[in-house]
User: Fold these one by one.
Assistant:
Number 1:
Amino acid sequence: MPTRIITDGSTERVVPAPRVVLPAAATLFAERAARFAQLSQGHPFGAYLQLMARVAQAQHEACAARPALPTSASLLAASREYGMPPLAALSHERAALWREDLAAIVQSLRPRASAELAAALQTLAGADASELEALADRVLAGNATDADAPLVPLVGAALQVYFTRQAAALPVDDVSRCDVATVCPVCGTRPVASVVRLGGAQANLRYLVCALCSTEWNMVRAKCSVCEAEKSVGYLSIEQEGRSLADVPIRAETCDECHSYLKIFYQEKDPLLEPMADDLASLALDLLVDERGYARSGPNLLLHPGSS
Ligand SMILES: [Zn+2]
Ligand SMILES: [Zn+2]
């Protein structure tokens, strides 16, 4: 684990960079909503990003309205001793609470919903518990059907709320030993993107950001986040007006070993970057990288499958 020298003017101390950073559930979704709203200004998909701002605001309200449930001591012990993600998304027994989060999100999106969104909200409002659980299983496993597509971002939003709230309540020392560097140490999900952080003990370090629970974990830079190869990593970006390529805050980190890519965000070049929002606002980069033959490695649960 790298360490940074932090100088605060009077004393010099060595602060170890955290290996794992749990999500700040109280503020994360509100900040995401603000970022979506900001990104929507003058954006070719501005209306879509404004809708996503409303989704994130609904997530914020749902997150605050319900408590985290206790995580069993045996799961935390398995995490400490064997590095197993305590909330492994594919096997975790979800509490019914996530469906309350979903109902709240559905309710808050009803006003001003387009015909297509209203139909999706209606479908979810009318689905029974077993249908919703099966749908959640498909979303988490990444095998949602075409018919599920309009429902996926809404179910994904509710699952994010539930898992983020659960993750935020964990003792960080209990989840810092996962030795599989390519998946979230808390829930085992792939990262949505990686961020080179700005400031504090995390400055200049690269963190992968979980697509489900927003936990962040450290991985050295210039290393493929899928196959961990170091020599085959390259970067692609889209030129932005008024910025040189080296100064662009978003790049795709590509790997010629496994032919995958994941976006990497440089917070130093844009301090307000928010991984989930900036990912959806930069789908043009996905198209470019896709054309070059790289396959995206991590999901964005707020996106329809196949719509990128
Ligand atoms: Zn996670
Ligand atoms: Zn690779």
Number 2:
Amino acid sequence: MKEKIPAHFAGRRFYAADTWLKEHFGRKTIKLAVDGGFTCPNRDGSKGVGGCTFCSDTGSGEFASTIEEQLSLYARKWPSACYLAYLQNHTNTYAPAEVLYRKYTALLADPRIEGLVIGTRPDCLGDEILDMLAELAGDHFIWLELGLQTIHEQTAAAINRCYELSCFDRAARELSRRHLRYVTHLILGLPGESEEMMLDSVRYAAAAPGLFGLKLHLLNVVRGSTLAKTHPDYTPFAALDDYVDLAVRCLEIIPPHITIHRLTGDAPRPLLINPPWSFNKRTILNRIDEQLSLRDTWQGKKSGCVDKGSL
Ligand code: SF4
């Protein structure tokens, strides 16, 4: 029988997070990047200093501000959209559970906010915090985002991630056991990694228990990061099309039930150093769509997973 693109992709060639959100909430859903006022264990000295080498001094939160500021950007254009508060920069579970509970419930008390997205690290998810999150998720829409970046310990040490892969494995298991949705972040193009190593990271992350989604970031060298000092001229892919080729091959091995939340980098243009073509997100995404079509391929085509709806 001829393989078909899964119907739940809704006309696309991968399972975009927007498609899932529209289906879930019944309307366009926008994440408002909110600054939760946290830091990271590899910035404040408890695990390390200086942060991850690719991360800017805002903790990768160049777009984060307050709910009011964020709503003023979107509410006029999308008055009937569904809004989620996204605690994006730094480590948003890096505090005692009762402090976190107060912060999260304050955001969720806003009638304009329908749920919470919490960006964090797997080493900041102790049992007490996980239990509190599971309780909160009983009444509210929540997902967590885990910065894994790579499964390779040598690269993890080089980027100053300051936790081991086994820590991610435990967090994934515990989140899944509590039925908490989570999205894993990976970076494509970290110094010292071959394409095979990147594909191995994608395969591994995609097989984690209960995974809801993946974010694939193209490595951006940004001003204010350690990489900008140590590797200012580093360009992970010689040309945009090399990146597009790898992104397509990554999609092919990701099972079709996993939602895709990002397929490129997102650094603001004034901060971006390398690769210079990365600011052109729309072109990169269009090329990925174009290549998926030209190769007549799609997410999961080589994952070995059968999408029952397509048979
Ligand atoms: S990438 Fe995440 S964990 Fe690493 S320094 Fe930046 S905000 Fe902290």
Number 3:
Amino acid sequence: MRAIVYDRYGAPENLELRLMPAPVPNANEVLVRVRAASLNPKDSLIRKGKFKAASGGTFPKLLGYDLAGVVEAVGANVTHFKVGDNVFGMKNGFTGSTVAELAVANEDELATKPASLSFEEAAALPLTSLTALQALRDLGKVTTGSRVLIHGASGGVGVMAVQIAKALGATVTTTSSEKNLDFVRGLGADETLDYTKSTGLERGREWACVFDVFGNQRFSKASPALAKHGVYVTTVPSPRNVFDDLRTRWLPFKKARLVVVKSNRADLEVLSKLVAAGSLRAVIDRVVPLAETAAGQGHIETKRARGKVVISISV
Ligand SMILES: NC(=O)c1ccc[n+]([C@@H]2O[C@H](COP(=O)([O-])OP(=O)(O)OC[C@H]3O[C@@H](n4cnc5c(N)ncnc54)[C@H](OP(=O)(O)O)[C@@H]3O)[C@@H](O)[C@H]2O)c1
């Protein structure tokens, strides 16, 4: 099969399209003929060697966590899928492998692809939407009437967070650059702030949840603008954010939480229901062919992507 691989940690130029042996599913895994994958900052961070302790020192490495495609084979214990099913999902862990013609995923990391979505649209959803769902619903306790601030609302996670917060019944304020104000409003934001003029954390504001998607704010700065039981949720696993999460986790008031996205079928099916209800749509910055994966990663690394970069894999 054709796959994007790299032989050492470093720049996107290390990525190469190569013929690799097809993966073999274990008893709990599904082999998927990948029709589309999508890229995330996680792929670039791992390629740069930022998570070496988890990603290890063996090469060549493949990349990619999001996928949509068609079931090619199933392991002996797989009960939920059969050959020919259309699926989408996200692999857990630090050994990505979905930017390839074939990929294996655990049965619980996949769900039936929403029929209304193309493979490209379905591949654009999992990692970022699951992050937004788990950050807002599980950590931020966002519910009907919650006042939510989403900082950095125009990127991969942000565009999903706006839509999911609205679907949870929240009133949503966003920050983005000025050029993206109308774009984010089009996703459903009630109030849009240009972060060069206002971060939304000024005195007089009172948020039930501040979701720091971009990750350049901090709990100590957000705390004065949180409601009594408000929660600050960040995406960045820095030592300070981990410490703030641990020290405030059991406090009755004002908590800091770090989201660590976890793929599971129940949540993928929540996303499918939101799609079916018309509450969630894929937001794609660009679709690139497999051979142009390095350029796709380069675009993400500008930190200016509007939504997702999707890799289309022709059959
Ligand atoms: N912990 C987890 O489980 C988890 C899961 C998913 C993602 N993450 C992390 O979450 C972060 C966001 O991921 P993503 O996929 O949304 O990234 P992304 O798509 O690369 O984000 C791009 C967006 O960042 C915005 N941005 C750039 N500079 C900014 C600034 N100074 N302030 C606010 N926004 C700014 C840009 O908006 P403008 O052009 O409008 O400025 C752009 O739309 C990454 O660090 C990623 O690694 C963590």
Number 4:
Amino acid sequence: MEYISKSERETRAFAAVLSKKLNAGSVIAYCGDLGAGKTCFTHGLCEGLLFEGEVSSPTFAIVNVYEGGTLPIYHFDMYRITGWDDLETTGYFDYLDRADGIIVVEWSENIHAALPEDTIFIDIKKLDENTRKIIISGGFAL
Ligand SMILES: Nc1ncnc2c1ncn2[C@@H]1O[C@H](COP(=O)(O)OP(=O)(O)O)[C@@H](O)[C@H]1O
Ligand SMILES: [Mg+2]
């Protein structure tokens, strides 16, 4: 499935619609460069799930946990994760086992081998300053 977004607002609204189709245990893996809109999309997912707090890139924390909406969201930034030991310490596998919320992964390229089979891939391409092509694949039939 492909969608062309012409603003940050459209990306958030599109993500909010998608969020309604997610379940506890869903894993979302982004591909896309810096500034593509991965954090913006995550913000929209959070809004769709009625989370009201701040959503920001977990660059230093590695994982941000957003609780209080209809499902918890575990927002990972794997930019600096380079091996299995690193990944283990982030708690990623624990969240995966618990399967009580949605796992969202920025820089998923770095943990490709650790993504479950039914991962939903979201590829965001920057077409110009305010236009993004969002390509969704994998997962269940969305
Ligand atoms: N259509 C769009 N969708 C998403 N973000 C957009 C769009 N147009 C412009 N932007 C801007 O692009 C930037 C995306 O930043 P961010 O979501 O942090 O990217 P990433 O997490 O992929 O590095 C923001 O400054 C946002 O305002
Ligand atoms: Mg980001």
